[in-house]
Design brief:
- The chain is of the alpha/beta class.
- It is built from 8 helices and 6 strands; from the N terminus they run βαβββαβααβαααα.
- β2 (30-37) and β3 (45-53) form a beta hairpin.
- It is globular and about 45 Å long.
Length: 186
Amino acid sequence: MNIMIVGVGGQGTLLASRILGNTVINEGFDVKVSEVHGMSQRGGSVVTYVKFGDKVFSPVIDKGEADIILAFEMLEAYRAMPFLKKGGKMIVNNQKINPMPVIIGATEYPENIGDKLRENIDLTEVEALEIAKEAGNSKAVNVVLIGVMAKNTDIAYEKWVETIKTTVPEKFLDVNLKAFEMGYNL
C-alpha cells in the first residue's frame, strides 16, 4: 500500500505519518516512511511517503503509484494528483492556503481546483478545518483526515485509537481523539 501525505509546513503532516506508520507497524506490516520538506517553516510544501506491506524495500512513491493521497490543502492536492494511481483515492481538506507567490502578488491561486480534481479521480473532499475547530482545535485537521482515511482501511477503529493514545502528546490527546472520531464517522 502506497500512501502520500501532502500539505504545507505547520499542518501536522509529520504527526499524521507517525500515526499511520505506527498503526500499520502494530498490525504487523513492514513500513517505510520518507519525508520531503520544502520551505516547511515558511508554509512550503511537505510530502511524506508511507509504504507498507509484507516486505517494503523503498519508501519512495513515483508518479502513478499512490493508492491513497491524503491532502491537507487544495493546491497541494492538485500538485500531487499525478502520483495517484488509476483507481486510487484522494482525500482532501478543502482549505486553501496561499503560497508565497500568491502572497506577494506574483500569481493568483488557481480557481476551481476541486472541480479539476473531481474530473479525474475518486475524490473525497472534507471540511476538515471546520471539523477540527468543532473538535476543539483548528490544528487537529491532520487527525480529522486520518480518521476519514482510517474508515477506508481494514484496520479496526480501536487500533487507530490505541496508536493515537501512544503517539499524540497527553495535553492534546482528548481533542485529537475527538477529531479522529469525527473524521471517522463522516
